TrEMBL record:
<dbReference type="InterPro" id="IPR000838">
    <property type="entry name" value="RNA_pol_sigma70_ECF_CS"/>
</dbReference>
<dbReference type="InterPro" id="IPR013324">
    <property type="entry name" value="RNA_pol_sigma_r3/r4-like"/>
</dbReference>
<dbReference type="Pfam" id="PF04542">
    <property type="entry name" value="Sigma70_r2"/>
</dbReference>
<feature type="domain" description="RNA polymerase sigma-70 region 2">
    <location>
        <begin position="25"/>
        <end position="90"/>
    </location>
</feature>
<dbReference type="GO" id="GO:0006352">
    <property type="term" value="P:DNA-templated transcription initiation"/>
</dbReference>
<keyword id="KW-0731">Sigma factor</keyword>
<feature type="domain" description="RNA polymerase sigma factor 70 region 4 type 2">
    <location>
        <begin position="124"/>
        <end position="167"/>
    </location>
</feature>
<dbReference type="InterPro" id="IPR013325">
    <property type="entry name" value="RNA_pol_sigma_r2"/>
</dbReference>
<keyword id="KW-0238">DNA-binding</keyword>
<dbReference type="InterPro" id="IPR013249">
    <property type="entry name" value="RNA_pol_sigma70_r4_t2"/>
</dbReference>
<protein>
    <recommendedName>
        <fullName>RNA polymerase sigma factor</fullName>
    </recommendedName>
</protein>
<dbReference type="InterPro" id="IPR014284">
    <property type="entry name" value="RNA_pol_sigma-70_dom"/>
</dbReference>
<dbReference type="InterPro" id="IPR036388">
    <property type="entry name" value="WH-like_DNA-bd_sf"/>
</dbReference>
<dbReference type="Pfam" id="PF08281">
    <property type="entry name" value="Sigma70_r4_2"/>
</dbReference>
<dbReference type="InterPro" id="IPR039425">
    <property type="entry name" value="RNA_pol_sigma-70-like"/>
</dbReference>
<keyword id="KW-0805">Transcription regulation</keyword>
<dbReference type="InterPro" id="IPR007627">
    <property type="entry name" value="RNA_pol_sigma70_r2"/>
</dbReference>
Length: 174
Protein backbone atom coordinates (compact mmCIF):
# COMPACT_ATOMS: atom_id res chain seq x y z
CA UNK A 1 0.00 0.00 0.00
CA UNK A 2 3.02 2.30 0.43
CA UNK A 3 3.29 2.84 -3.31
CA UNK A 4 -0.18 4.39 -3.63
CA UNK A 5 -0.90 8.11 -3.27
CA UNK A 6 -3.49 9.39 -0.78
CA UNK A 7 -5.96 9.90 -3.62
CA UNK A 8 -5.48 6.34 -4.82
CA UNK A 9 -5.92 4.96 -1.31
CA UNK A 10 -9.13 6.96 -0.88
CA UNK A 11 -10.41 5.58 -4.20
CA UNK A 12 -9.60 2.04 -3.04
CA UNK A 13 -11.40 2.61 0.27
CA UNK A 14 -14.44 4.14 -1.39
CA UNK A 15 -14.75 1.33 -3.92
CA UNK A 16 -13.93 -1.67 -1.73
CA UNK A 17 -13.86 -0.56 1.93
CA UNK A 18 -10.33 -1.96 2.20
CA UNK A 19 -9.23 -1.60 5.82
CA UNK A 20 -5.53 -1.91 5.02
CA UNK A 21 -5.78 1.12 2.72
CA UNK A 22 -7.50 3.04 5.49
CA UNK A 23 -4.81 1.99 7.98
CA UNK A 24 -2.11 3.19 5.58
CA UNK A 25 -3.79 6.59 5.18
CA UNK A 26 -3.92 7.08 8.92
CA UNK A 27 -0.39 5.83 9.43
CA UNK A 28 0.80 8.51 7.00
CA UNK A 29 -0.98 11.36 8.75
CA UNK A 30 -1.09 10.21 12.36
CA UNK A 31 2.09 11.88 13.63
CA UNK A 32 1.28 15.31 12.14
CA UNK A 33 -2.31 15.11 13.32
CA UNK A 34 -1.30 14.01 16.81
CA UNK A 35 1.28 16.81 17.12
CA UNK A 36 -1.35 19.27 15.94
CA UNK A 37 -3.77 18.10 18.66
CA UNK A 38 -1.09 17.94 21.37
CA UNK A 39 -0.27 21.58 20.68
CA UNK A 40 -3.83 22.42 21.76
CA UNK A 41 -4.71 19.96 24.53
CA UNK A 42 -3.10 17.52 26.93
CA UNK A 43 -1.85 14.21 25.59
CA UNK A 44 -4.72 12.06 26.91
CA UNK A 45 -7.28 14.49 25.56
CA UNK A 46 -5.46 14.66 22.22
CA UNK A 47 -5.76 10.88 21.96
CA UNK A 48 -9.51 11.08 22.66
CA UNK A 49 -10.02 13.77 20.03
CA UNK A 50 -7.94 11.77 17.54
CA UNK A 51 -9.99 8.66 18.18
CA UNK A 52 -13.18 10.60 17.46
CA UNK A 53 -11.52 12.05 14.35
CA UNK A 54 -10.61 8.60 13.04
CA UNK A 55 -14.09 7.25 13.68
CA UNK A 56 -15.70 10.18 11.91
CA UNK A 57 -13.28 9.95 8.98
CA UNK A 58 -13.85 6.21 8.67
CA UNK A 59 -17.62 6.55 8.68
CA UNK A 60 -17.64 9.56 6.35
CA UNK A 61 -14.93 8.57 3.85
CA UNK A 62 -17.54 7.77 1.22
CA UNK A 63 -18.49 11.48 1.21
CA UNK A 64 -14.90 12.67 0.71
CA UNK A 65 -14.42 14.40 -2.63
CA UNK A 66 -11.00 14.31 -4.22
CA UNK A 67 -11.22 18.07 -4.84
CA UNK A 68 -9.10 18.69 -1.71
CA UNK A 69 -6.17 16.85 -0.21
CA UNK A 70 -7.04 14.03 2.17
CA UNK A 71 -4.89 15.64 4.86
CA UNK A 72 -6.90 18.88 4.60
CA UNK A 73 -10.14 16.96 5.02
CA UNK A 74 -8.75 14.95 7.92
CA UNK A 75 -7.44 18.04 9.71
CA UNK A 76 -10.80 19.79 9.28
CA UNK A 77 -12.50 16.83 10.94
CA UNK A 78 -9.95 16.97 13.76
CA UNK A 79 -10.51 20.69 14.19
CA UNK A 80 -14.29 20.20 14.37
CA UNK A 81 -13.86 17.40 16.91
CA UNK A 82 -11.56 19.65 18.95
CA UNK A 83 -14.15 22.45 18.90
CA UNK A 84 -16.81 19.99 20.02
CA UNK A 85 -14.53 18.90 22.86
CA UNK A 86 -14.01 22.51 23.96
CA UNK A 87 -17.76 23.12 23.96
CA UNK A 88 -18.43 20.05 26.07
CA UNK A 89 -15.47 20.59 28.39
CA UNK A 90 -16.63 23.84 29.87
CA UNK A 91 -20.25 22.98 30.64
CA UNK A 92 -19.90 23.57 34.37
CA UNK A 93 -17.91 26.75 33.89
CA UNK A 94 -20.60 28.10 31.57
CA UNK A 95 -23.32 27.08 33.98
CA UNK A 96 -21.50 28.86 36.80
CA UNK A 97 -21.12 31.99 34.72
CA UNK A 98 -24.74 31.87 33.66
CA UNK A 99 -26.23 31.19 37.07
CA UNK A 100 -23.87 33.25 39.19
CA UNK A 101 -23.01 36.32 37.15
CA UNK A 102 -22.22 38.33 40.29
CA UNK A 103 -20.38 35.94 42.60
CA UNK A 104 -20.46 36.81 46.26
CA UNK A 105 -17.06 37.24 47.87
CA UNK A 106 -16.03 34.39 50.09
CA UNK A 107 -18.66 32.05 48.66
CA UNK A 108 -17.41 29.07 46.70
CA UNK A 109 -19.73 27.17 44.45
CA UNK A 110 -19.28 23.48 43.81
CA UNK A 111 -20.34 21.76 40.61
CA UNK A 112 -23.06 19.97 42.57
CA UNK A 113 -24.46 23.32 43.80
CA UNK A 114 -24.44 24.65 40.26
CA UNK A 115 -26.21 21.56 38.98
CA UNK A 116 -28.83 21.75 41.74
CA UNK A 117 -29.48 25.43 41.07
CA UNK A 118 -29.63 24.83 37.34
CA UNK A 119 -32.10 21.99 37.79
CA UNK A 120 -34.25 24.11 40.10
CA UNK A 121 -34.22 27.06 37.68
CA UNK A 122 -34.77 24.91 34.63
CA UNK A 123 -37.91 23.37 36.11
CA UNK A 124 -39.65 26.72 35.55
CA UNK A 125 -38.89 26.70 31.83
CA UNK A 126 -41.05 25.31 29.05
CA UNK A 127 -39.49 22.47 27.05
CA UNK A 128 -38.65 24.85 24.19
CA UNK A 129 -37.13 27.43 26.53
CA UNK A 130 -35.14 24.73 28.30
CA UNK A 131 -33.72 23.31 25.06
CA UNK A 132 -32.77 26.74 23.74
CA UNK A 133 -31.30 27.81 27.08
CA UNK A 134 -29.12 24.69 27.25
CA UNK A 135 -27.98 25.15 23.65
CA UNK A 136 -27.05 28.75 24.40
CA UNK A 137 -25.66 28.69 27.93
CA UNK A 138 -24.30 25.18 28.25
CA UNK A 139 -23.11 24.35 24.73
CA UNK A 140 -22.29 27.91 23.75
CA UNK A 141 -24.18 28.09 20.48
CA UNK A 142 -24.93 31.55 19.12
CA UNK A 143 -28.50 32.66 18.48
CA UNK A 144 -28.09 32.13 14.75
CA UNK A 145 -26.61 28.65 15.25
CA UNK A 146 -29.56 27.74 17.45
CA UNK A 147 -32.02 29.08 14.88
CA UNK A 148 -30.35 27.00 12.18
CA UNK A 149 -30.25 23.85 14.29
CA UNK A 150 -33.84 24.13 15.56
CA UNK A 151 -35.32 25.56 12.35
CA UNK A 152 -36.92 28.35 14.42
CA UNK A 153 -36.89 31.98 13.30
CA UNK A 154 -34.06 33.99 14.84
CA UNK A 155 -36.50 36.38 16.55
CA UNK A 156 -38.33 33.46 18.16
CA UNK A 157 -35.06 32.05 19.47
CA UNK A 158 -34.10 35.42 20.97
CA UNK A 159 -37.54 35.85 22.57
CA UNK A 160 -37.52 32.38 24.13
CA UNK A 161 -33.98 32.90 25.45
CA UNK A 162 -34.87 36.26 26.95
CA UNK A 163 -37.91 34.76 28.66
CA UNK A 164 -35.82 31.82 29.90
CA UNK A 165 -33.20 34.20 31.35
CA UNK A 166 -35.88 36.15 33.22
CA UNK A 167 -37.49 32.99 34.61
CA UNK A 168 -34.13 31.58 35.72
CA UNK A 169 -33.30 34.83 37.56
CA UNK A 170 -36.68 34.87 39.30
CA UNK A 171 -36.44 31.24 40.42
CA UNK A 172 -32.82 31.52 41.54
CA UNK A 173 -33.44 34.71 43.50
CA UNK A 174 -36.16 33.05 45.60
Amino acid sequence: MNQFSDAQLVAIIQSSADHSAFDELFRRHHLKLRNFMRSRVQEATADDVLQETYIKAFTQISKFKLEAAFSTWLFSIALNEYRQFVRKKSIFEKLKDSLFRQPQLGKTTSEVDVLIDFTRGASALSPVQYNLYVMSRVYGYSHSEIATRTKLPLGTVKTHLLQAEKLMKVVLSE
